[in-house]
Amino acid sequence: MSDLATLEAEIVSAVEASADLAGLDAVRVTALGKSGSISALLKGLGAMGPDERREQGPLINGLRDRVQAALAERKTALEAAALDAQLAAERLDLTLPAPPRRRGSVHPTMQVMDEMTAIFAEMGFAVADGPDIEDDFHNFTALNFPPKHPARETHDTFFFSPNEAGERMLLRTHTSPVQIRTMVSQTPPIRIIAPGRTYRKDSDQTHTPMFHQVEGLVIDRNIHMGHLKWTLETFVGRFFETSDVVTRFRPHHFPFTEPSAELDVQCDRTGGELKVGQGSSWLEVLGCGMVHPNVIKNCGLDPDEWQGFAFGMGVDRLAMLKYGVPDLRDMFASDVRWLAHYGFSPFAAPSAAGGLS
Q: Is 32 in contact with 38 (CB distance < 8 Å)?
């Protein structure tokens, strides 16, 4: 009996002294393994007589049960301590600020398009839209392009293969087809702008195969060049955010307007900056003119009753001029570093009350 008590005390002491699960398992094997001290006592029961076995059996089995209970209790304590240590090592402080993430920006082209829309909305212009894929009538014929005009050739325009009827669809070369669709579908007076993507076979520092335009159209009775001049001068002053705007109209030719002109603004280019309203240089901004009578006829209107003016400008080029972008091609390069530098906050939408840029 004293030998069993001594053995139990030694085993329980070893169990309590185990610092980790591996050490505890070593104590278990020493006591209860195949060659363990308690296993040897259990095996010795078979060699005892009946009376001795009845006396020693309960004592040895009780020792085994108490050792197993001590092992289980110590294992539970060690596992809890290991879990606490792991949680402490992997602790995440949720009170710390989140790591900085790259914020999205509004592309300069979209910013300028919103600025232009806000300006023309103040002057009563609605926004009209049309398809990027056009037919010859809306893109050329209705706009008074002659049959052999260079713009109808494949070196200028992206054409699709002819369809079953032999007609070649194309990627629109300007947003002027929206003007045609509007005049056909709406009864004057008309006052719209048509922003959107356009496509031409051209690529260099100031041209890309796909670019953005905003065109404007006014159709009403007794419209003349004075209305056109006031509209464009007001737009230029509001867009470049200056009241000192000096403009000049140079004669030009467009098939769909007569007379036609290009609008220049006086500017200063010194110091690597563009300053509108000062200096002695001139900057071409847009093309414009009075809507050609043939265009009005092609849309089913009487040119003796209805007159109008139209204008068109490149959104991407205006963004370059206003915000100092040196190369137009960078605007389509999908470089997030470039956008982080030139982009605008999505929360600073242009408006008449809050300002443009």
A: yes
Which residues in 152-172 are b (16+ Cβ under 10 Å) and which e?
beeeebbeeeeeeeeeebbbb
pLDDT digits over 95-113, tens only? 877 777 767 788 999 999 9
State how many domains the chain has. 2
Nearest Cα neighbor of 300 from 139, 159, 181 is 181
- Rounded to 10 degrees, the C-alpha dihedral 333/335/339/342 comes to -60
Same domain, 141 and 8: no
Contacts by 344-353 with C-beta closer than 8 Å and gap 24+? 344/105, 344/106, 344/108, 344/111, 345/105, 345/106, 346/104, 346/105, 346/106, 349/114, 350/111, 350/114, 350/115, 350/118, 351/118, 352/118, 352/122
Supply φ then ψ for residue 63, to 5 degrees: -60, -45
Residue 352 forms part of a structural domain: no
Q: What is the pLDDT of residues 164-221, one digit of tens each?
A: 888 889 999 999 999 999 999 999 999 999 999 999 987 776 678 899 999 999 999 9
